[in-house]
Specification:
With 144 residues, the protein is mainly α. The chain is built from 4 helices and no strands. The N and C termini lie far apart (122 Å). May play some role in mitochondrial processes.
Amino acid sequence: MQVRILFRVPPVYHWVEMRTKMRIMGFRGTVIKPLNEEAAAELGAELLGEATIFIVGGSCLVLEYWRHQAQQRRKEEEQRAAWTAMQDEVGHLALALEALQAQVQEAPPQGALEELQAQMREVRTQLRAQDPPSTSRAASTSKE
């Protein structure tokens, strides 16, 4: 049974990788031999696995960043809505306060009310003094 090689590393990748390694180690001008089929397939599989892991990890990071940004925007929208609602409520309370202040200014002062009550008592006592005794009894019984 023969296994087909699905992914082989290109010869250019092997050449660049080996040349870089040789220069790092201090060997210059070394001839690099091409890989055989089995080694190329193994290196290709390793490269494909690493690329897959890198792509999945990068995708997870990008998706998490987008999710975090969407959550942040939603929080900002909620805060803006709450702020607007509080500003509206403060505006309504300011209007209610102005209305109450106008009512207080229109109402007579407390001293004037007491003065009016004293005048009413005086008028009642004068009326009782002028009424004959028979009408005062009828008035007192009708009040009860």
